[in-house]
Amino acid sequence: MRVSQEFEGKVAIVTGAGSPIGRAVTRRLRAEGAQLVLGDVVEADLLACATSLGDRVIAVSGDLSRREGVQRLVAAALDAHGKIDILVNNAGGGVILPFLKHTPETMQATIDRNLWTTVWSCYEVLPGMVERKYGRIVNVGADSVRNGLYDHAMYNAAKGGVHAIATGLAREFASLDITVNVVAPCMVETPLVTNARAQGHPMIPKMEAVIPKGRPADVDEVASTIAYLARDEARFITGQVISVNGGSTML
C-alpha cells in the first residue's frame, strides 16, 4: 500500500504492534512515511511485524504495563530519532468473562494490559512532546464501554479508563498542539474472532447482533481512523472518542 507521505519525517511509537490491529496500524503509518518504533510483550509477534515492514524499524519487546518496559521503548526511539511525534496506545487484551467468573488475577491482568500500558506510555512520551510543543496521541479504546456488551464489565472498566484519561490529557495539553483522542472499535475480524466463530462460540452471535452493518470491522478500517487522527490535518480534533463500530452505538 502506497498512499500519501503525510508522516514523512515523523516518528511514531505503536504499542501492541504484534496484534492484528497493531500490524494494520504499522502498515498504514509506514506506507505514509513514518519512522516506526514498535513495542509488544510477545516478542515473536513483535519481530514478525517488524520484519514484515522492512528495514529501519525498531522493535523493543517488554511488559508495557510496567514503567521500566515503557522507558526502554521510549529510550530506543529517542536514541535513534531524537524525538517522538506520534504515540498509538494499542497494547491491550482483556480476559472476557462474566464478572463473577473473574479472579483477582484476571481482573488485574485486564487493568494492567489495557489501562496501565496507556498510562505509562503517555507519562513517558508527553515530556518530549511538551518540550517540542507538538504531539499526536491516539488511544485504542472499545465501543463496549458505550454499549455494555455481554461479559465485558471488567474489560470496560479498563478501557473506560483509556477513554477517560484522553479527555483529561487533551484539555491539559491542547494549547501546546498536542492532541489526545480515542478510536473505539467494536468487534474486529481478527484470527481470534474467526476461530471462535468456526468453533461455534456463543459470544460471537451476541456480539454481531448489536452491529447494524451485520459484520465486524476490518483491521484496516480501524487503522485508517487512527492514522487520520495522527495527521496534522486533524489538529483541531482532541479529547474525542471516535467509534469504528458499524453503528453499534450512535452519537
TrEMBL record:
Top-rank taxon of the source lineage equals Bacteria
Q: Which InterPro entries match?
A: NAD(P)-bd_dom_sf, Sc_DH/Rdtase_CS, SDR, SDR_fam
Q: Name one GO biological process term.
A: monocarboxylic acid metabolic process
Give the Pfam families listed for this entry: adh_short_C2 (PF13561)
Sorted alphabetically, which PANTHER family does this protein's record hold? 3-OXOACYL-(ACYL-CARRIER-PROTEIN) REDUCTASE, 3-OXOACYL-[ACYL-CARRIER-PROTEIN] REDUCTASE FABG
What family does this chain come from, according to its entry?
Answer: Belongs to the short-chain dehydrogenases/reductases (SDR) family.
Name by which UniProt lists this protein: 2-hydroxycyclohexane-1-carbonyl-CoA dehydrogenase
Q: Which organism is it from?
A: Aliidongia dinghuensis
